[in-house]
Structure formats: structure tokens, C-alpha cells
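Notes from hallway chat w/ T.B., transcribed later so I don't forget. T.B. wanted the structure written out for a chain they're using in a teaching module, and asked if we could keep both sequence and C-alpha cells in one place. Agreed to drop them here.
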Amino acid sequence: MRGRTADAVACAWGFAEATLFFIVPDVWLTFLALLGLRLALVAAAWSLVGALAGGLVMLVLGVQAPGAALRLLDAVPAISPELIARVRAQVDAHGAAAVVLGPIGGVPYKIYAVDWGARHASWLAFLLVSIPARGVRFFLAPVIVAGIQRWIVRRRRVAGLALLAAFWLGFYTFYFARFRG
């Protein structure tokens, strides 16, 4: 895997997941971590760039066509009107902190972006809180996988690949069971 290709995929995946795609870039980043931590961390930075761009697109959609944006979100797997209402309540109660904490709990970032736009809140403030909201997980996931690869699996890439595939399969099985949309 060459760096430019990995970075391009990471950036596109970050953008896609911030808009309408429903599988997090962490999947790609953790598989890259099996090939090398530096490769994965550079790709994480590109995922963040893509996610910020995608978040801004969703924010603008929330400003210009909030009803259409909500209908679009409702069509994404694992997003429901109830989840959208929950995000609205979280932002009402916690403001920008909700944008940071919500995605850590598995709530899609794209919902926060549309809600923020529908409120006509500051796009710059949204982008600033989006950096930790997206970046912490993007950078942390590859570090954890690289550590597991190094200390537990002891550089057996096939074993690491099998463990990682099993983790993501289990994660998304649980996620989609929890957030039926």
C-alpha cells in the first residue's frame, strides 16, 4: 500500500462518512495500522480533512434545506427520527460539547452537522469542535491496533487481520442492532 493511495482513500472515506456513508473511516485506518503506524497516522490526518469537508457540506445543507437534510439523514442506515431528535436535545442541553461527545458514543457526526446548520450557528465554531470530535478517534484507533499488533499478536499480520476483521464485524453487528434506523 502506497502512502498516496492510502491517504486518498482515507480522505474520501472521511468525507463520505461525514455525509451519507455509514461505515467509519476507523475501519480503513485500523487496517492500515497493521501495515505501519506512520502510514495509518498520516491517513488519519487525511480522514480528518475529509470529515471536516463533509461536515461542512452537511452543515450548509442544514442551513439551506433543513427539511431535505433531515429526510436524507433518515434514509441512512441506523439513523432514525428518534436519533435525530435525541441529537437536537443534546445540542440544546450541551451545545458544542454534544458535537464532541456524541460521536464517541456512536451517534453519527453528520446528524450534528445538519442540526448545527439548521440552527444557523457558527460554521467556524462547528469546524473547531469537529477537530477533536473526529480526530481523537481517528488517531487513537490506529495507535491501539498497532499496539495490539506489536505486543499481543507479535507481528503476525494474518492473525492481526483476522482479529481486526472479527472486531469490526462484531462492532457493526452490535451497532446496527442498537441503532435500527
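Follow-up for T.B.: The longest helix spans residues 123-151. Might be a good example for the class.
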